[in-house]
DNA sequence: AAATTATAATTAGGAACCTAACTATATAGG
DNA sequence: CCTATATAGTTAGGTTCCTAATTATAATTT
């Protein structure tokens, strides 16, 4: 019986400190092995979470992106422009078009032409879409809460703080390459 | 000039505490808003990191997966079976086949038939593959280190601990559905 | 020994997100 | 006015990873 297929994040897939050390030693680099371990673990956790999330939402006939779009729409009184959605979700407008296509096909949102600007199309949350969100809310939020269930309230605050700074670190790395910084990363 | 396209993780894309509270209040759920915030932020961070990682590796003509395969190969004396690689990387064998295809095309690995078992094909790190790893090591590890550069040594330990428990939480959620646990998650 | 079953790798096709090119509309400059 | 340029959304095609089916070889069962 091959139920191993389900368990992707095997113990083998988790990078260890000795592994990080070995890699650094091989090239005689002046790098903190633990820093490498933290970064590697975070990458592994990110991939794992992304995968788990898709499985979670698929039980409601949604994907992570499509749920997030619906939730954002709900947060903005049930009507938004695709470009706003793209900005809120942190994805491209092309991606939003695809998300809307499927949600519209499934009757969870609808498109409407804007009267003010002929280029714009409003996206509206349908009654069915609102119902879907209402129905999945308890289970969904319980799922999210369970994710951090092994952390105490205090630990959650600490984690949030540390994660925020790591996120900042990542942003700095990706922005670095654009030689014209927008000026909002001020700490030298 | 539209260099905004590069900066995907806009300030708007980061979920806030008030947003989490609003969502929970809407359905009168007995859920800790901060827990939702932590979970949401982690998901956002995971996506951001995944994206940043692809950009990082693309500068060396690699993807995250292909780099990880090369690095794992190096860790195992330059020779492994595809099935071992799949397990170590936490991806399916089908994915590994695809990764090897491109790495082989680019001359970074080679395939060899196993003498012992006719079903197996060994994957070998070529000299060119080893050279690639050697060349990118300084920049790559510096990149990883910079990611957690805003954290002190002590904070890295704390972060590692908390992240580990969140990871456990996620694993528990995904395994939950398979009614026959493998019994290797022993700490009750 | 032959037939069944398991395993290793691959192939085929799908989902999510991307970039770049395109269409339609709006705005600005001469 | 009317051409040039910017913007909103979409379309086309690529990448990464997945699941399910397929092929080839090994192990097991009768």
Helix/strand layout:
Two copies of one chain form a homodimer.
Chain A lengths: L16 H10 L6 H26 L5 H12 L3 E2 L1 H8 L3 H13 L3 E5 L7 E5 L1 H21 L5 H24 L12
Antiparallel strand pairs in A: 1-3, 2-3
Helix pairs in contact in A: 1-2, 4-5
Chain A binds a DNA duplex (30 and 30 nucleotides) through helix 5.
Protein name (chains A, B): MarR family transcriptional regulator
Keywords (chains A, B): DNA-binding, Transcription, Transcription regulation
Pfam families (chains A, B): MarR (PF01047)
Please give a structural write-up.
2 copies of one chain form a homodimer. With 188 residues, chain A is mainly alpha-helical. Among the domains of chain A are: 14-58; 64-126, Winged helix-like DNA-binding domain superfamily/Winged helix DNA-binding domain (Arc Repressor Mutant, subunit A, Orthogonal Bundle), CATH 1.10.10.10. In chain A, 61% of the residues lie in helices and 6% in strands. Chain A is built from 7 helices and 3 strands. Chain A has helices at residues 17-26, 33-58, 64-75, 82-89, 93-105, 127-147, 153-176, and strands at residues 79-80, 109-113, 121-125. In chain A, strands 1-3-2 form a 3-stranded antiparallel β-sheet. In chain A, helix 1 crosses helix 2. Chain A starts with 16 loop residues before the first helix and ends in a 12-residue tail after the last helix. Residues 1-9 and 178-188 of chain A have low confidence and may be disordered. Chains A and B meet through helix 1, helix 2, helix 3, helix 4 and helix 6 of A and helix 1, helix 2, helix 3, helix 4 and helix 6 of B. The structure holds a DNA duplex (30 and 30 nucleotides).
